[in-house]
Every structure is written in C-alpha cells, then in structure tokens.
Amino acid sequence: MSSFPVAICAPSGAGKTTVCRALLEASDDLLFSVSATTRPPRQGERDGVDYHFVSDEEFRDMAERGALLEWAEVHGRLYGTPRSNLEAAEREGKKLVLDIDVQGARQVVKARSDTVTVFLLPPSFAVLMERLRGRGSEKGERLRRRMETARGELDAAMTFQYVVVNDRLDEAVAAVRSILDGEGWRLERRREEIEARVGELRAGLEAGTR
Q1: Which positions bind ATP (predicted)?
Q2: Does the annotation place 175 within a ligand binding site?
C-alpha cells in the first residue's frame, strides 16, 4: 500500500493523542511523526518518543535550514514537524500519522496535496470541559486560553476531509482506521501499480484473440 501523510487534528481535550496512540498500537503500517517543540516536557514524556524537546535557537535553526515540513507557534511555544519523519515513512512504505494543530495541518496539505485530514470532535461540551479540567494543568487563565483556541479550531472542522466523533475510543480508532484503509485503495495512490496490471491483462487478452 502507498505511503502518505495523515494529519489528525482536534480541539484540546478531544482525545487526539489518545486516539493516535491507540491507532498506532493496533497497526503496523503507520509511523508516528514525533514533533519538535520548545515547550518543556510534561511528566512522563520522553525526548525522542513523545517530542523532540529543543531550545528556541535549535528550533529556529531547523526552520531556517528548511528541515521542518511545517511549524507554528501555539500558546507561546514553537511546534514543528521534521521533514525527516516523512522521509522515514516513505522509506518504510508507511503512512505518517501527524498529531498536529489546525495551523500545521494546513501547511502540511500545502506541502503535500496527498495528505489525508481527519478532525476529531468530543461528543459534547460537557465531555470537552471534563477532559480539559481532568488534565490538572488546565486552570484559570490557562484554561480560558485553551477554550478560546478550541473555539477557533472547531471553526475549521468543516474544512477537513473527514470528521470523527470521539465518544467511545474503540469506535473512534476503528473509524480512523477504516478511513486510512479506504484512502490506501484510491486509484491516484496506486496508479502505477494498476496501470501495470491493466496492461498485463490487456496484453494477455490481445494475444488470446489473435
């Protein structure tokens, strides 16, 4: 099957990271895109696994060298996708899963028109707020700013190719998996293979009718 980028976006608290992790654990044809960021690690996060934690200077150097497929500033911190992630996925023939924000997804689509875009929605406002507050780190002004960002991200939902409601984790993961399976069979992703097969069949038929 073909290799292509998959941009998965959601408002903060919609369970995007949880869905991505579950999807990756259940699949062997996906590669997770480890983003670079200037924010400090949260408890339990590992450098090179969850993020590449870099300084502002290192990040801006990567951007200037063209080493980032996309990058954006979010809540005062820099986030970006190393181009090497996409190159690794193409070498391995895997789909690259990007746990990314709306700004980043737009840049990825601009750079790679074959990108599949998926937007995750929480099932309700009550669940969204429960998930946001459940983080513990989301309080006061910080919570308010994340709510404002979430509102802006929700405005972009209708511009995505696919929208999945993340009510039950298993169902959301299955929905995204089915999207990727279907996309992998699209003709434009397999044109060379299909043309070769059709040519072989036509040649056989022509030889048999002479």
Answers
A1: 10-17
A2: no
